[in-house]
Amino acid sequence: xxxxxxxxxxxxxxxxxxxxxxxxxxxxxxxxxxxxxxxxxxxxxxxxxxxxxxxxxxxxxxxxxxxxxxxxxxxxxxxxxxxxxxxxxxxxxxxxxxxxxxxxxxxxxxxxxxxxxxxxxxxxxxxxxxxxxxxxxxxxxxxxxxxxxxxxxxxxxxxxxxxxxxxxxxxxxxxxxxxxxxxxxxxxxxxxxxxxxxxxxxxxxxxxxxxxxxxxxxxxxxxxxxxxxxxxxxxxxxxxxxxxxxxxxxxxxxxxxxxxxxxxxxxxxxxxxxxxxxxxxxxxxxxxxxxxxxxxxxxxxxxxxxxxxxxxxxxxxxxxxxxxxxxxxxxxxxxxx
Length: 337
Fold this sequence. Notes:
Mean pLDDT: 91
Order of helices and strands: HHHHEEEEEEEEEEEEEEHE
Number of helices: 5
Shape: elongated
Distance between the termini: 75 Å
Helix content: 10-25%
């Protein structure tokens, strides 16, 4: 075989392994829980969770309640939607603030192609239903001299049940068992115009796959590190530059992967911060968004083209469109001076 043909075949093989090797119940998280950890504002301006979406800045949103909704739609009618509700408590005397959010995600009649022992190791076209339920708790406080720190604790369970389109009675089920997971964040704001942040995330799951042949269990571990900086350019304008490094290992497929991607964004606030628009690049996904602020209500809306495509690959389809929105109610405004 000629060298160029060998290279071409190798590339096809690589992408085939990548697409079939992913666990659908873990992949669907990228459309919901993976996003609300950053916040809709950060999503619209390039998804840099190290700066304005950092865990360490939760205390700035004290005494608020929010409703998150989102949907990711593929041209093949694969649709993933979620709803989340959260509350940030009033701060303690030392500035420590607690935030809790609960998420529920469902996806029905999803078409995809999977490789599993029950299919004889061949690509199997399937339809299935998935869901993801999670609760996240964040704690943050200012440390002085412009520094802030935050922690994240997470509880998350996911499942995907599918049946073969070709073989009657052939099925494959994926589900996770909870293993302690969480993250941490640190920001430094030496002046009003500059914000530097670091965020680390550690997701751990015990994954079980069952089909007509049998079942197997293995650990899935993901480590993600983000570093970013936001700079005020002029009145109401921010430029955000960052990047992330993530490492994933999966025992069921005996795979390991490390990737590095950029995060770039811009935001402009107008009319005394009553309106804002933003846009950016989250890895390879284009983003955009707006905000409307009329106290005590804040509405954020974000759009993402091909959300998390570098993470989920083509397992659910080649292209997608996502809309995410948050409505925040500041119930503590009357107590703030």
